[in-house]
Amino acid sequence: MRSFIFFTILLFCCQTKLRAESFDVTVAVAANFAEPLKILINDFERVHPKIKVNMVIGSSGKLFAQIQQNAPFDLFLSADQSKPLALIASGHAIKDSLHTYAQGTLVLWSYSETPLNNESLKTFKGKLAIANPKIAPYGEASMEVIHHYENPNIQIIQANNVLGVLQYVKSQSVEMGLVALSSLSQFPLTSLNIWHVDSALYSPILQDMVILNDNPHTRIFWIFLQSEQAKIVKHQFGYKDSQ
């Protein structure tokens, strides 16, 4: 029995060590930026083959809570500005690493063949999926848009993040969803029934990143995310440069 316990502990320690050696940088990323980050990681690792980057995807709010509980992340890419600032204030992040890496775009999306436009939310009767506004900045922006139209016939269905909204619309559990334009990258944009929500209807979605564990490898990746090469990828996913 003792031998079995010892072997189990040894195996766990070895697996933990292997996992630790598999990645030099662990990035906590808001769900809306997951797809462009995958491409950016591949581009980065081709240039820096000795630096491996792992990513953990979630809503900004949930990742923020995990970081406050000392989750082993090196870099945090939030979908807003307030959470990185709060982490700096609490001593969980490095002050000089705060940087706005992207500005998001909110779109209305539907599988319906009826073209979407400025009147769609004004006259809509049915289920509309949004990210949870308590933990997801795109959800906050969505609520601003919904409040503008003051349409009592909209039934709001909440998902944990924008990827959850995608699932609701894809499964046709809801008629429409408010999502990040970047999250629709898996579909040919020319074939999508979307409406770019008037940016005047919601606060700018400025997305900040901040270093949590300051080491040379993290710094190198942080710098890469600000490069012209990275900007090209961001633009391809519908992100704007920060103002």
Please describe the topology of this protein:
Elements: H1 2-22, E1 25-30, H2 34-47, E2 53-58, H3 60-68, E3 75-77, H4 82-89, E4 99-104, E5 106-110, H5 120-123, E6 126-131, H6 137-149, E7 154-159, H7 162-170, E8 176-180, E9 193-196, E10 205-211, H8 216-224, H9 228-236
Parallel strand pairs: 1-2, 1-3, 6-7, 6-8
Antiparallel strand pairs: 3-10, 4-10, 5-8, 5-9
Describe the model.
This protein folds into two domains: 2-103 and 205-236, Periplasmic binding protein-like II (D-Maltodextrin-Binding Protein, domain 2, 3-Layer(aba) Sandwich); 105-201, 3-Layer(aba) Sandwich (D-Maltodextrin-Binding Protein, domain 2). Residues 1-20 have low confidence and may be disordered. The protein has 243 residues and is of the alpha/beta class. The strands form two sheets. The chain has a five-stranded mixed β-sheet, with helices on both faces. It has nine helices and ten strands.
